[in-house]
What we know:
Elements: E1 8-14, H1 18-27, E2 35-40, H2 44-60, E3 66-69, H3 73-77, E4 82-86, H4 91-100, H5 114-138, E5 143-146, H6 151-160, E6 164-169, H7 171-183, E7 193-197, E8 200-204, H8 214-221, H9 227-233, E9 236-237, H10 239-245, H11 247-252, H12 261-278, H13 293-306, E10 312-319, E11 332-340, E12 343-346, H14 354-376, H15 379-388, H16 395-410
Parallel strand pairs: 1-2, 1-4, 2-3, 4-5, 5-6
Antiparallel strand pairs: 6-10, 7-8, 7-11, 8-9, 10-11, 11-12
Amino acid sequence: MNPAVAGAPVAVIGGGAYAARLVEVIASVPDMPALELRLHARDPGRLDAIASHAAARSRALGAAHRVGAFGDLDRALDGAAAVVLLVRVGGLAARAHDEAFPARFGQVGDEGVGLGGMASAWRTLPVLDRIAARIAARAPGARVLNLIAPLGVTTRLLLERGLRAVGLCELPVLTLERWRAAAGAAEADPPLAYAGLNHLGFFWCPGRPALDHPVLRAAVERAEVPGELARRLDAAPLHYFVDVFEPEAALGAGRRRSPGRALELARLQGDLLRRFRDHPGEPAAELQRRPTPWFEQALVPALHALLGGPTYRGALNVFCAGLLDEAIPQAVVELLGRLGTAGAHIDPVPARPPAVRALLVRLAAAEDLLYRAAAARDRGLLAGALDALPLAWSDAARSAARPELLDCICSPPPPDPEIE
């Protein structure tokens, strides 16, 4: 076992019990440089249990990292080389609210997309603004890796505050890898293009119809992508777009959101905390109940790349800056590219199919209005964002629901007695 040594300071802000899982994934990378992993959370009792377990687990894996609990945010950030943001404002009770209230209006709930994503953004941006100010003051040169939902608006705030931030999501690459494997294709030939907003991205085949491509055709045949939707868009969307904005197509493809996911995760977090307290440093079988591909496939490889490891390739959330003319320059878009010590480099984006372009114009406009509404606490802008979303309801139904819906989005989530 290697002795723990001082290394590059990395502040991990939030994440709950899963901050310990992140440390375990970092400790499993053989050539990761020695780090000082500073875990920060608001609950000191939980934080101590998580950090103690994570430190013991890192030692058990033979890693040379130091792991500590930092109850004070400024201390966690002081001189950090990198900052990892995993905050969920309001905790799992807020996620439960975001997943539940849209059903009252005949819509699908999600903490990052659609109506639930609007509530999450409204609640999160003021808190994140304060965190961003502390990062700028205490670690102005830090590389910031953001995983806070909704990822587009939270990454935009960080970038507009002058931070060296990028939003990360594993979903586009893992989706394409799964489709390729199921189609028996190691690579997509010809290559598929990808572009969009976080969780609202699209794959297409430049220069030919989407369903002429064997990988996308196989995804439709397996009902992973609704065929009518693929033909209408000439592209294959990520499943979040289908679930939230095309619910009839989702049902036709056998996709149905399971209610109560936040409560399930709250129970799992309780089980993990008890495991950490009772058996610090031992493998936690409970983690098998919730895989963390965003750590293994995106966050840890990206962190390693920023610290001098292999270049990371994946979906990056960055300022649009003319990369997609469907969005204003200061909007955040999700595109494929690479990340290393020199920063992010985005792959060229081929022309989008006309139906995808039209959707991206509307989705980007809605996200811009949402960002400005949440930043300014402006319900009028929020109503504009609501009207811009391509939700599956009539104008009359939207208009009738608007007053109550805005209250649901802007009001603090009610306490949930089943979620601590």
